[in-house]
Write a structure and sequence with these properties.
Layout: H1 23-43, H2 50-77, H3 81-102, H4 105-116, H5 125-140, H6 147-177, E1 179-182, H7 193-205, E2 211-214, H8 217-226, H9 230-241, H10 255-271, H11 277-282, H12 290-323, H13 330-345, H14 349-353, H15 358-373, E3 376-379, E4 390-396, E5 399-409, E6 419-424, E7 427-428, E8 434-435, E9 438-445, H16 458-475, H17 496-503, H18 509-512, H19 527-535, H20 541-558, H21 569-580, H22 596-599, H23 609-626, H24 632-643, H25 651-659, H26 666-671
Amino acid sequence: MNKNPLLDFSDLPRFSEVTPQDISPAIDTLLAEARACIETITATQAAGSWDSIVIPLVDATERIERTWGAVDHMNSVVNTPELRKEYNANLPKISVFFSELGQNLGLYAKYKALAESPDFANWTLARRSTVKKALRDFRLSGAELPEDQKKRFADIEQRLSELGAKFSENVLDATDAFSLFVTDKAELAGIPDDVMTMYQEAAAKDNKEGYKITLQFPSFFPLIQYGDNRKLREQIYEANVKRAAEFEPANFNNAPLIRERLKLAKEKAALLGFSNYAQLSVEVKMADTPDQVLSFLRDLAAKSRPYARKEFDDLAAFAKEKYNIDTLQAWDVFYVREKMRQALYDFSDQEVKQYFPENMAIEGLFNVVKTLYGVDIVPGQAPVWHKDVRYFDMKKDGKVFAGFYFDLYAREGKRSGAWMNDARGRRILKDGSIQKPVAYLTCNFSPPVGGKPALFTHDQVTTLFHEFGHGLQHMLTRIDELPVSGISGVEWDAVELPSQIMENFCWEWDMVKKMSAHVDTGEALPKTLFDKMYAAKNFLSGMDMVRQLEFGIFDMLVYSSLDAETGDWLKLLDEVRKEVAVVPYPAYNRFPNSFSHIFAGGYAAGYYSYKWAEVLSADAYSAFEEAGGANPVTGKKFWDEVLAMGGSRPAAENFRAFRGRDPSIEPLLRHSGLAG
């Protein structure tokens, strides 16, 4: 066993043994080995073969990606000053290596020769796709640029990776830096008992009396949703939307990072011959042009905004009549929304939450997977990075073929949100065996409090299903070539299809009744309560729709038409909001400063992907509806034609193979209650 746990590839990462001091030696070793491998591949004049070019390169880069993936994951979920320091020290090394790799003319020539070889047409689909996508990536990495421009391109790539990491750090630090202590219980009127217990336990952990509220989502959102104290709602709302902006210490302010990122993204695109970054972004996606994307988003806005406008007017009228709120503000919306839903449909999120203790929600998820795909999920063994993390094995016909980690609770030092990432991918190994794919599945739900199990809202159950859908695409692949296996090589605007389709099964009664049991009585969710929930499924769906369209249009415009040097993105966002939004936002709102998806993640000029893929997922789910709901026959076809294929075949072809036609927007509008 290797003394450095990050250099042990015999199985899964030895997380419990990793220290920050292990990172630099491991990365330096792996980069040196990979560079030596590349030298060997390119040293010969011979054309080479799959086995002499692709396999050794994949071997070398996979070791880097698995080790760096583990480090990156720990940096996101158990962030410490020591770990962050080592992460940031090694991030430029990783960026430089992959820039060198993408610009290596010797490798580029080898891949060209493979594509031009006489037997290329007879290769498997996965191998052909691997080579074609590699050639595209060489071009988009600047391989064909003059030497002086290559250097500038590599510098830009390195700086963009550093900016993304710093942006995320600032959001995390700004989130963790805020806390509000309340000593008078009356100020927290309306907050559910279990949330009050969480607040009390948080204060006690700091050796303080009263209640501690933070900007971790499970802490601040219940106050926004249930707190009767309007001033307190505004206070916590304001703190949340001012994160990482000029109102805080200068080292937390993400505005300078946004400016630099926009300028560098535009310069990077220009070096490759694109007029803006959005054009470069869609080059590797299903969509053809930024204009096509904007037309798609604005068409959805035209269809949904009239509904959203009426919904907001109704909400404002309710707020005025019932709560004497003359002007409905952003910090009132979720509170009044919950009250209006209770009035209209006679149930609350808090009531529903009692029926979804963590163990039942997870069992319900596993039951859906078993129903659709005949896959069993059982507890497994693997080293973990935190005591709350669990590991599971996926089994088919009694054989383990994949695995995943669950890290479900919010905590300090953990990035907010929910996501799936890969620990390792499926591939065929030299001895002919198959490497089992493994996924990280991360959420930020409320932890157990007051001696009871964690309780999930139905929205959180849906989030759990969503992220597991990503995991299924990674784990149910049947492709054996790593570069196009699982989620690898899948167009970014198609990756949400498997995740969004899973959300629908949270609304099938036959599935829901098996995933619910009241935390105190053990009784299943009553059908009468489920019927109320279903009736309210599209409550304010127009407002929800335009909120996502606001994000998508802003993202596409900020990377396509905003002047990167002097453009005012807050003014641009205001213009987008005037076009599509219905909720009034205060002038101090600095949403872009914490919009990590597009300024620190992979969604730059790609946030539209959620709505683009939602068209696909709504239409794909219609096939299940036509077959009566969750069933193994339709599930097998979805596995065969979509999940199994990984990135080996274009997503549009996968969809047509499953559905027998191109996608239609009608199911999305119908499922959202916006078809009129």
